[in-house]
Amino acid sequence: MDSTVVAGSTNTIFTQPAPALPLLEKGQAGDAIRVLQWILNSKKFLFQPEEYLDIDGVFGTRTENVIRYFQSVTNLPIDGIVGPDTWALLSLPEGLD
Questions:
Q1: pLDDT tens track for 30-80
Q2: 18-90 placed in CATH 1.10.101.10
Q3: Whole-angstrom distance, CA of residue 25 vs CA of residue 9
Q4: Is residue 23's pLDDT more than 50?
Q5: What is the distance between the alpha carbons of residues 14 and 5, in angstroms, rounded to a whole number?
Q6: Backbone conformation region of residue 30, classed left if phi is above 0, alpha if psi is from -120 to 50, else beta
Q7: If I label 53, which of 15, 46, 63, 85 is the partner at 20 to 30 A Cα–Cα?
């Protein structure tokens, strides 16, 4: 990735956009789903610890239901699909979502 370092600064300014996050939906499997499940588990307002998602990398009914609930409490369209808007709110630090 190309980057520019500002003189006298420890900050790096990236000149290329971050790679797009994948569109995720029920029926998919893989590492991106594992990351999604880990992020969902970190959103403590979603459920009690005993209800945490298994981080199994499978976007099944349970993961879809948690996404739908997350979308409902964050005023997103409730479609169960993790697209750009859902990723944006999932990426916010705790307390800002």
A1: 999 999 999 999 887 777 767 889 999 999 999 999 999 999 999 999 999
A2: yes
A3: 41
A4: yes
A5: 9
A6: left
A7: 85
